[in-house]
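User: Design a sequence. Structure:
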């Protein structure tokens, strides 16, 4: 097999990244936008020893679940991998993904894993968008989304899963850059000013935040830009610059220069209000975030006298969601601005039994348990995609809370960590998949664990 070969392939499965998976001789072949049960022709693009990637040329036999996508860039953009599948089939495949990862890891679950909880709105649900800004081969400044498996840009601000305001905001900013000859950032030379456009929307308050990530400390004629944004887009409440002068592909820096507004927007989940700053983590699907947190609250089964640890707490969303149902909650987060936001969110909601602490979850949890003698009845962890630090798992294992709730955005690292916990005296009772990201292969999961007696 070599590049440019044309293959006829029967797609047998969906890979971790959403590519169709087939076999050709000794090679596993990955084909974007091809789905299980389909027969396709595809052109080989690159070959390794045991696998290859190929670009689909034609579908001979289509899946009965294949539908027409809403996005004109679905074949190029890396954002949505399975938008051409019926939504019910997306949910089934995500459920299958969770079940299979747990099975392979050897995780035993007491209750049968229920079907993935789906979204009511599967388009225009994302409350955050990040647009890279570059010069294209013609020297034009463009913004868009990364193509699949590359840093090439698909030059379009239009995205059917994003907020309606995004396109107009991007158009105004790109026009401003052209008017004032402000150059986009060049990764190769570490020159230029504008790296990314970050947009966040609070759907329940119709508030919009715009933050421009820059390689520097200022943006020329920013007051003019603010005036144009406010005149052209309804609901903009905050405009800022995020400083990132590092020669890396990391998106955001650590310094925010506020240009307009209070430095945050406010979102509502259930009965709670949350302030969201440019650097803070907040679930990108607002309506499904409530579904997720309701499941966490259900699994916590709080009676009112418990002490709760919320580790990797972000802006305090889960901690505050639980605070009114327990005696005390400790939230731990490594991002300083998120801790500030969490504390302000507690004040905003009149909650005085939530304490937020800055630092690594594994370090602060150990300090609370070992040096301060705090015992958690319920522990909630909501780690990044890489999962929990092993030292944190060891702390939880030694702590042995009455209930452990693991919120995960990656079912592979969830399975790894649940197996570690299982081997050290915890039993997984429930796992509930929740779809936060329609049209992608990503799936959120909430797991409930109890400590058990280990054999002598």
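Assistant: Done.
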């Amino acid at each position: 097999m070599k590049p440019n070969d044309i293959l006829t392939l029967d797609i047998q499965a969906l890979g971790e990244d959403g590519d169709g998976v087939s076999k050709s001789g000794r090679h596993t072949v990955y084909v974007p936008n091809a789905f299980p049960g389909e027969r396709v022709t595809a052109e080989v693009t690159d070959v390794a020893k045991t696998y290859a990637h190929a670009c689909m040329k034609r579908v001979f036999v289509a899946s009965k679940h294949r539908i027409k996508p809403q996005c004109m860039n679905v074949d190029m953009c890396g954002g949505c991998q399975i938008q051409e599948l019926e939504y019910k089939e997306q949910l089934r495949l995500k459920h299958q993904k969770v079940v299979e990862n747990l099975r392979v890891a050897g995780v035993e679950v007491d209750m049968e894993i229920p079907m993935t909880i789906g979204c009511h709105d599967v388009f225009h649900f994302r409350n955050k968008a990040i647009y890279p800004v570059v010069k294209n081969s013609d020297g034009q400044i463009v913004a868009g989304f990364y193509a699949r498996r590359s840093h090439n840009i698909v030059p379009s601000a239009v995205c059917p899963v994003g907020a309606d305001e995004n396109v107009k905001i991007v158009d105004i900013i790109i026009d401003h850059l052209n008017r004032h000859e402000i150059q986009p950032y060049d990764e190769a030379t570490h020159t230029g000013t504008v790296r990314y456009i970050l947009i966040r929307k609070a759907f329940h308050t119709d508030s919009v935040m715009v933050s421009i990530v820059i390689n520097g400390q200022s943006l020329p004629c920013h007051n003019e830009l603010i005036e144009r944004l406010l005149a052209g887009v309804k609901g903009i409440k905050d405009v800022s610059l995020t400083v990132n002068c590092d020669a890396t592909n990391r998106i955001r820096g650590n310094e925010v220069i506020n240009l307009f507004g209070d430095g945050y927007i406010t979102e509502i989940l259930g009965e709670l209000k949350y302030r969201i700053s440019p650097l803070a983590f907040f679930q990108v699907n607002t309506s499904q975030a409530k579904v997720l947190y309701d499941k966490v609250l259900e699994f916590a089964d709080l009676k009112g006298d418990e002490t709760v640890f919320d580790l990797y707490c972000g802006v305090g969303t889960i901690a505050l969601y639980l605070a009114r149902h327990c005696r005390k909650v400790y939230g731990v987060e490594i991002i300083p601005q998120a801790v500030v936001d969490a504390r302000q969110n507690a004040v905003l909601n009149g909650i005085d039994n939530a304490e937020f602490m800055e630092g690594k979850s594994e370090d602060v949890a150990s300090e609370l348990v070992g040096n301060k003698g705090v015992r958690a009845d319920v522990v909630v962890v909501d780690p990044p995609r890489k999962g929990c630090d092993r030292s944190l798992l060891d702390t939880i294992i030694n702590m042995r809370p009455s209930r452990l709730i693991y919120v995960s955005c990656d079912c592979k690292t969830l399975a790894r960590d649940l197996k570690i916990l299982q081997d050290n005296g915890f039993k997984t009772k429930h796992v509930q998949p929740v779809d936060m990201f329609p049209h992608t292969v990503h799936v959120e999961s909430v797991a409930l664990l109890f400590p058990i007696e280990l054999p002598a």
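The first strand starts at residue 6 and ends at 10. The chain has nine helices and 23 strands.
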